[in-house]
Sequence to fold (186 residues):
Amino acid sequence: MFSILSTNFVSYYTKNGKKVTVREATILDADRILVAASKALVDAPYMISTTEDTQKITLEDMKKLLSMYVKNPNYVQFIAEVDGRLVGAIDFRNGDKEKISHQGAFGMTVLPEYRNYGIGRALLETLINWAKNNSKIEKVCLEVMEDNIGAIKLYKTIGFVEEGRKTKGVKIGNSYQDLILMALFV
Fold:
């Protein structure tokens, strides 16, 4: 059950009764975002990024990125907190050229111990509500690995539709995963 307080703040209770707050990230969250991202990627076979990728990002890099989100009205990052702990994040950026500026893509992470409690849905619904209230954004896009059945199911229940595939879009060792391209018009 979601309780929308504004387009930038959501509060709800998980399946196990924990209160989750989803809010827009600020520059003050930079260090917490880096720590949570590293933890979220440890047991995340369907994420494009790896823990090694996050280790290349400095605190100063993250602060600059968050500053860019604050300055651009078509970029946003939301974080999910449980008992003051950052447990998930979602970020969105629209296209940087005029002809594709009506659309953008997001990336999302949730800490392993907080998965399957509705936190991903809360982050995604907060993002969609934000996009619906943004006069520039018309389309929210994503890429998901073909074997990530749980995420695909979530996206479809929210209304995302498959638009295409990037065959062998991800290489892990000697095996490949197609990337399914999905989108939702807001």
Summary: The chain is about 30% helix and 40% strand.
